[in-house]
Design brief:
The chain is mostly helical. It has helices spanning about 15-25, 30-40, 45-55, 60-70, 75-85, 105-120; strands at about 60, 90-95, 95-100. The protein contains six helices and three strands.
Length: about 120
């Protein structure tokens, strides 16, 4: 059996007060941390990622997204409602049709940064 690789740990017993004081001033509020956590939960679903990626390519109606992803319209509508409530997508009406698009350029940037990150190899 191979030897167990030890994880690095801090062996010092000194607390670096300056580092802690500086970092403490920059820490996010609990409310912001919870909101950020909820935001990342929205990105933790593969169906929602597919919808966001599709909308990064073009504005689409539910029928378009359903056809592209091979999903039923009810499932797509449910996910769009969730994404809309999280302010990741927006919509506009044209007659009886609602067209969805990404809420703003930040959503595209986040998707693109994620794609770059997962493409990086150590």
């Amino acid at each position: 059996m191979p030897a167990k690789k030890e994880q690095p740990f801090c062996s010092c017993t000194t607390i670096h007060d300056g580092v802690i004081a500086s970092a403490s001033k920059k820490m996010l509020s609990d409310e912001t941390v919870y909101e950020l956590s909820d935001f990342f939960k929205m990105l933790g679903d593969s169906t929602r990622i597919k919808i966001l990626q599709a909308l990064s390519l073009s504005e689409m109606c539910v029928c378009d997204i359903s056809a592209l992803l091979g999903m039923n319209q009810s499932a797509v509508s449910h996910q769009l409602k969730t994404l809309k409530s999280s302010r990741l997508v927006k919509f506009r009406r044209e007659g009886k049709v609602s067209y969805y698009s990404l809420a703003d350029s930040h959503v595209t940037q986040i998707l693109n940064k994620g794609i770059v990150h997962i493409g990086e190899k150590d």
